[in-house]
Amino acid sequence: MVAIPTLALVAYIAFVLVAFGWRTWLQYQQTGESGFRGFSGGAMGRSASILFLIGLVLAPLAPVVELIGWAAPLPILSRPAVQAIGVAAFSLGFGVTVVAQFQMGSSWRIGVSTSERTALVTHGVFNLVRNPIFSGMLLALLGLVLLVPNSLAAVASLFTVVGLELQVRFVEEPYLLGTHGDKYREYARSVGRFVPGLGHLL
């Protein structure tokens, strides 16, 4: 039987390859460029990107340190039921991320460039939350934490959550308001930020 940390590590690597590698390749096939706009958006955008990148790097180390015996999971969370929830959360988050990335079409970007205007996507899963890609990533990360509930997984989650919050609130939302104006404001008043019904703009 495959050890849970090994399963978590393989699943995370697959997630990164699909969510970043495959989607970048698809963007290039469709548009002729990668869609990468990372480390943009001024000081706040760079800070958000750095925090997210740190979380991205630390996350796969959480199962590694368990595999080599440098860390142990919290006993209260090392139960089959919790691990099953972790698998379900990771799988659902993976699926939501991929579907949302696909539904963005040519508007998909990593980061923001204030010099370009992309179409405002509001259909599909974007009709449920405004940032379904990030929602999916956070759900997948929650699944990873439940699979390998150690301190490194918690730290990776903290960096990722803070990075995404800064990116969305202080980089992407101002950009979308400035680019799409009342159309985005009306959309944001009725659709939640990361969770349906929560995080509406006033």
Helix/strand layout:
Layout: H1 4-31, E1 36-37, H2 42-58, H3 61-67, H4 80-104, E2 110-111, H5 132-147, H6 151-180, H7 182-190
Parallel strand pairs: 1-2
Fold and architecture overview:
The protein has 202 residues and is mostly helical. Helix content is 65%, strand content 2%. It has seven helices and two strands. Strands 1-2 form a two-stranded parallel ribbon. Helix 4 runs antiparallel to helix 5 (132-147). It starts with a helix and ends in a 12-residue tail after the last helix. The relative contact order is 0.17. The mean pLDDT is 92.
Strand order of the largest sheet: 1-2
H and E string: HEHHHEHHH
Shape: globular
β-strand percent reads: under 5%
> Structural class of the secondary structure composition?
mainly alpha
Tell me about the largest β-sheet: 2 strands, parallel
Q: Bin the helical content.
A: 55-70%
Low-confidence region ranges: none
Task: Give the termini distance in whole angstroms.
Answer: 51 Å
Question: How many DSSP-defined strands?
Answer: 2
Mean pLDDT: 92
Return Rg in Å. 17 Å
Count of separate DSSP helical elements: 7
